[in-house]
Amino acid sequence: GAGVSQSPSNKVTEKGKDVELRCDPISGHTALYWYRQSLGQGLEFLIYFQGNSAPDKSGLPSDRFSAERTGGSVSTLTIQRTQQEDSAVYLCASSLRGGGPYQETQYFGPGTRLLVL
Amino acid sequence: AQTVTQSQPEMSVQEAETVTLSCTYDTSESDYYLFWYKQPPSRQMILVIRQEAYKQQNATENRFSVNFQKAAKSFSLKISDSQLGDAAMYFCAYRSGGSNYQLIWGAGTKLIIKP
């Protein structure tokens, strides 16, 4: 079946503008994750959604960052009043969440490269 | 807090030869999972191999195998018969066996394959 998809692939914006990044998880996956990857770095956890439970927002770096997941499927990560330090690749992943390590494996989308000028 | 360390920023290997990428981690937990992911220039993270901490047997997936040393907290990845398509960034990741599903990531190792 289809994998995780993200849009846009690339986004260039001006400092101070708001941006929305979209993630479509694998069909049937109930868990969804957002990560940020700065140049030459590993991944930084941002937020985790699991079914209808309250999301784990512990990784969001500031209140300018927010995310929602509608209908337990598509998710949108919003960055308000973007800053140059927000420039990074934003990766989304989903997992089946049915118990057991194999079902917990996270499958990643191709990411959105955000550049804030 | 758990940490993952990849001490090799870059490795190179001749095509068809074998290379080993290092990963060490720090945890006080006994139940956890370890992963190696590959990130080619396309940016998409691709799962290479996974290991459950409670399993003593090292995981293998075709040309990829791990050397999991639980006492030493080491989780190295061996790639046999290296191919040009193996060129990528390789990331080691840790996940707790509990309810916390965050992946803790290493900084990555860039693997170069010489033809």
List the helices and strands and how they pair.
The complex is a heterodimer of chains A (117) and B (115).
Chain A: E1 5-7, E2 10-13, E3 19-24, E4 31-37, E5 43-50, E6 65-69, E7 75-79, E8 88-95, E9 107-108, E10 112-116
Parallel strand pairs in A: 2-10
Antiparallel strand pairs in A: 1-3, 3-7, 4-5, 4-8, 6-7, 8-9, 8-10
Chain B: E1 3-5, E2 10-14, E3 19-21, E4 24-26, E5 32-39, E6 46-52, E7 60-61, E8 64-69, E9 74-79, E10 88-96, E11 103-105, E12 109-114
Parallel strand pairs in B: 2-12
Antiparallel strand pairs in B: 1-4, 3-9, 5-6, 5-10, 7-8, 8-9, 10-11, 10-12
Outline:
The complex is a heterodimer of chains A (117) and B (115). With 117 residues, chain A is mostly beta strands.
Descriptive keywords:
heterodimer, A: 117 residues, mainly beta, Immunoglobulin-like, four-stranded antiparallel beta sheet, 45% strand, globular, B: 115 residues, six-stranded mixed beta sheet
Report on the architecture of this protein.
The complex is a heterodimer of chains A (117) and B (115). With 117 residues, chain A is mainly beta. Chain A has strands at residues 5-7, 10-13, 19-24, 31-37, 43-50, 65-69, 75-79, 88-95, 107-108, 112-116. In chain A, strands 2, 4, 5, 8, 9 and 10 form a six-stranded mixed β-sheet that branches. In chain A, a hairpin with a 5-residue loop joins strand 6 and strand 7. The mean pLDDT of chain A is 90. With 115 residues, chain B is mostly beta strands. Chain B has one domain (3-114): Immunoglobulins (Immunoglobulin-like), CATH 2.60.40. Chain B has strands at 3-5, 10-14, 19-21, 24-26, 32-39, 46-52, 60-61, 64-69, 74-79, 88-96, 103-105, 109-114. In chain B, a hairpin with a 6-residue loop joins strand 5 and strand 6 (46-52). The mean pLDDT of chain B is 93. Chain A binds chain B through residues 31, 33, 40-45, 48, 50, 56, 59, 89, 91, 93, 95, 101-102, 104-111, 113, and chain B through 4, 33, 35, 37, 42-47, 50, 52, 91, 93, 95, 101-103, 105-108.
